Amino acid sequence: QVQFVESGGGSVQAGGSLRLSCAASGLHLSLNDMAWYRQAPGKQRELVASISSGGITNYVDSVKGRFTISRDNAKSTVYLQMNSLKLEDTAVYYCNLGRRVGGVVIKGAVGSWGQGTQVTVSS
């Protein structure tokens, strides 16, 4: 059974930083394209960053240059370093399988979602 456990969220002032972690189990992380998603209140969940099994990264324009996705296959963990946080980054963040190429999501999430981790950015 594939499971994702997200952690590292919190409350931070605009301009601050957070590092999210996602512990994945029930799959060979090294063989999978992984992604971070977020869902803000009243909005649909969106894929914001992906990293392929080969390490190729892709970001939505709104986070490009501020967020960095990485992976540690030995630890079966995916990370999201978020810098220069903005009010509009406030959301619940989730990880799952996924891949974005150019501006298109070519592989979406599968299975159940984890509980997510709340990120709240205040002014």
Low-confidence stretches: none
Query: Main β-sheet, in a few words?
Result: 6 strands, mixed
Distance between the termini: 40 Å
3D shape:
globular
Taking all residues together, what is the mean pLDDT?
96
Helix content: under 10%
Number of strands: 12
Strand content: over 45%
Tally of helical runs: 0
Radius of gyration: 13 Å
Strand order of the largest sheet: 2-12-9-4-5-6
Structural class: mainly beta
What is this entry, summarized?
It is built from no helices and 12 strands. It has strands at about 5, 10-15, 20-25, 35-40, 45-50, 55-60, 65-70, 75-80, 90-95, 100, 105, 115-120.
Give a description of the structure.
With 123 residues, this protein is mainly beta. It is 0% helix and 52% strand. The chain contains no helices and twelve strands. The protein has strands at residues 3-7, 10-13, 18-25, 34-39, 46-51, 57-59, 67-72, 77-82, 91-97, 99-101, 104-107, 117-122. Strands 2-12-9-4-5-6 form a six-stranded mixed β-sheet, with no helix packed on it. Strand 5 (46-51) and strand 6 (57-59) form a beta hairpin. It is globular. The protein starts with a strand and ends with a strand. The mean pLDDT is 96.
Would you spell out the secondary-structure blueprint of this structure?
Layout: E1 3-7, E2 10-13, E3 18-25, E4 34-39, E5 46-51, E6 57-59, E7 67-72, E8 77-82, E9 91-97, E10 99-101, E11 104-107, E12 117-122
Parallel strand pairs: 2-12
Antiparallel strand pairs: 1-3, 3-8, 4-5, 4-9, 5-6, 7-8, 9-12, 10-11
